């Protein structure tokens, strides 16, 4: 096989992955909040730690242009190259879906206590738990250590290679709730850490996305945001019976929710395919209405925000039009029929796939077999979307794989849990993929 790594090189990389270093990497990633658009402090902290641990490798903090959404954002880039060889990019991200700040997190988590700190537990301290491990600190730590192990082994052996680690800013989906086509203002495009990294540089030959997954993903759905807006005149709660609709918009919100659920059922049924690698999904993620400090005034506007994953062939414009048509028909004859209705939709990115026979897919499959003693389980109908789509859409063959999570702490679901041996396994697995890529390109 063209990617069979010499035993001495493989063993050197395996020995370079040690538990203490992996936990130190996780501690550096978890030492402070790293919310979307404010990752720079974490990038510097991790870069400083890594430069001390692996001074022979390159570690660089690359600021992302400042915008209102990204006021203090940066990528962390690690690099190692010797000779002219095709580049492998190992990618994860610095930001977390939740921020660690109560003002943003509490409406989602229902908790106002501080985010749980990193800790070890279990009879042999074999479980690590904490905040933000699922998205994506656990996988990012394994990717960092695996990348460094492969780079270190290649450098020590004088083997030509080009390996890059990218822990990117703004790697989680985020929408601008203030913008939408019906405002006459299109949402500002988000540069994103991955796009910033790819700008003005040659594309890597292949990429590995390090995020928790049930197997090896070679395809991922796209994503889009939808906003449904109902409007009417505002009325004092004192005169709610004379409002339009009677009782006010929120009294009849259930009618709108059921109409949205009806649309979801039909939308998913039309895309049901048990053999498809990716699947569609739609969820209501936020409802905004009124002013908490003035509940004596019934709101004149209700915004419902939705997130939808798209499959190959989906057209965001057609989906938006279909949702609008469903709501017009479904709300007819209800108290909401006399209200204003506006539906706005815009895509984050379309779905994309890597051919199953691409070299990076073979390298990942063989590395998984070596790590587990069995092939990776097949994955069908996957509904999670990441920046792997961004890489694939730019022609970079990409696979996604990452350590499985344990069930979260039942007393605080924000405390996500991982088995340390699994993180170690995946650090070595990422190193193995990197070595196989290097071997196949070098011979």
From TrEMBL:
<protein>
    <submittedName>
        <fullName>Acetylornithine deacetylase/Succinyl-diaminopimelate desuccinylase</fullName>
    </submittedName>
</protein>
């Amino acid at each position: 096989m063209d990617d069979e790594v010499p035993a001495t090189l493989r063993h050197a990389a395996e020995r370079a992955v040690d538990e203490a270093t992996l936990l130190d990497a996780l501690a550096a990633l978890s030492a402070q909040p790293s919310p979307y658009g404010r990752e720079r402090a974490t990038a510097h902290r991790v870069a400083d730690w890594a430069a001390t641990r692996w001074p022979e490798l390159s570690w660089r903090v690359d600021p992302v242009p400042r915008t209102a959404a990204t006021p203090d954002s940066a990528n962390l880039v690690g690099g190692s190259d010797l000779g002219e060889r095709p580049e492998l990019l190992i990618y994860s991200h610095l930001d977390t879906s939740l921020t660690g700040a109560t003002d943003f997190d509490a409406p989602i988590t229902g908790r106002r206590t501080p985010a749980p700190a990193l800790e070890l537990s279990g009879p042999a301290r074999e479980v690590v738990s904490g905040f933000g491990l699922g998205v994506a600190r656990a996988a990012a730590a394994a990717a960092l250590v695996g990348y460094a192990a492969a780079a270190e082994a290649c450098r020590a052996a004088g083997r030509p290679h080009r390996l890059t680690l990218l822990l990117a800013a703004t790697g989680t989906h985020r929408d601008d709730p203030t913008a939408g086509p019906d405002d006459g203002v299109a949402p500002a495009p988000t540069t994103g850490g991955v796009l910033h990294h790819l700008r003005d540089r040659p594309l890597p030959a292949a990429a590995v996305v390090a995020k928790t997954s049930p197997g090896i993903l070679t395809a991922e759905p796209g994503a889009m945001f939808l906003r449904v807006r109902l409007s009417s005149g505002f009325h004092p709660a004192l005169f709610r019976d004379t409002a339009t609709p009677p009782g006010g918009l929120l009294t009849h919100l259930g009618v709108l929710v059921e109409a949205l659920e009806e649309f979801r059922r039909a939308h998913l049924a039309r895309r049901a395919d048990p053999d498809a690698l990716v699947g569609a999904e739609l969820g209501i993620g936020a409802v905004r209405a009124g002013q908490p400090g003035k509940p004596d005034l019934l709101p004149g506007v209700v915004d419902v925000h939705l997130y939808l994953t798209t499959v190959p062939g989906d057209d965001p414009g057609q989906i938006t039009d279909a949702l609008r048509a469903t709501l017009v028909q479904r709300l007819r004859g209800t108290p909401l029929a006399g209200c204003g209705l506006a539906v706005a939709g815009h895509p984050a990115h379309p779905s994309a796939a890597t051919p199953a026979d691409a070299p990076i897919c073979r390298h990942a499959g063989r590395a998984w077999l070596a790590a587990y003693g069995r092939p990776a389980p097949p994955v069908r109908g996957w509904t999670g979307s990441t920046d792997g789509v961004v890489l694939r859409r730019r022609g970079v063959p990409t696979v996604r794989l990452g350590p499985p999570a344990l069930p979260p702490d039942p007393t605080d679901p924000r405390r996500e849990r991982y088995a340390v041996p699994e993180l170690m396994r995946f650090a070595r697995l990422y190193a193995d993929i990197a070595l196989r890529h290097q071997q196949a390109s070098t011979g």
